[in-house]
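My main concern about presentation is that the manuscript never shows what a single data entry looks like. For the editor and my fellow referees, an illustration may be useful. For illustration, here is how one protein appears when written out as sequence plus structure tokens:

***
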Amino acid sequence: MNRTTAYRLAAPFYDLAMAGLLRSARRQSIASLSLLPGEKLLIPGIGTGLDLPNLPRDVDMVGGDLVPAMLAQASARGIRLGLRNLRLAIMDAQALPLPDESFDAVLLHLIVAIAPDGHAVLAEACRVLKPGGRLTVMDKFLPDNQARIPFWRHAVQSILFPFTDFNRRFGDLTTELPLRTLSDQGVVLGRTIRCILLEKTSYVEP
């Protein structure tokens, strides 16, 4: 079973599983972007729209997902919240159908470790960001300096394999990208799930 199929089947139950677990972490991650009125925000992998209640009403939002069933729930949530500045479309976070340098901020919640190519997700987010734009990532990563994968993470991966990769290192995914880390905080179970704020620069950090 591929991940698109897995999430299509999981769509009716996704909110029950995920809404409460990461509510505080979602707020923290969104707050770190310091969004200003009129800014353009991209949300690849918007899923069922669990982030929407925490977003300012005065930003221009574009959300995408590969799973129509997820987008249908995001659309219904946006309508309930009265979000008139929200546009939704089917899109692949690894190959965004969007022009270069067209967004002020990008929100990547639980997509970098889900997509088959996490580096491509970050590269595309970086491409569509304006210089100086902000990018926040919330996902589960191995510590970059941890050579061996603990047994318990192997065990968790065996359960979650249709949905996500539990054992990616964030540092491996940002190689050769012009991104500067502004903050990196553990938000759930120590540093199992991290909230990472980055800025697009004009150079690649060594």
About this structure: The domain at 3-200 is CATH 3.40.50.150 (Rossmann fold). The helical segments are 3-10, 14-18, 23-32, 68-81, 118-128, 151-160, 170-173.
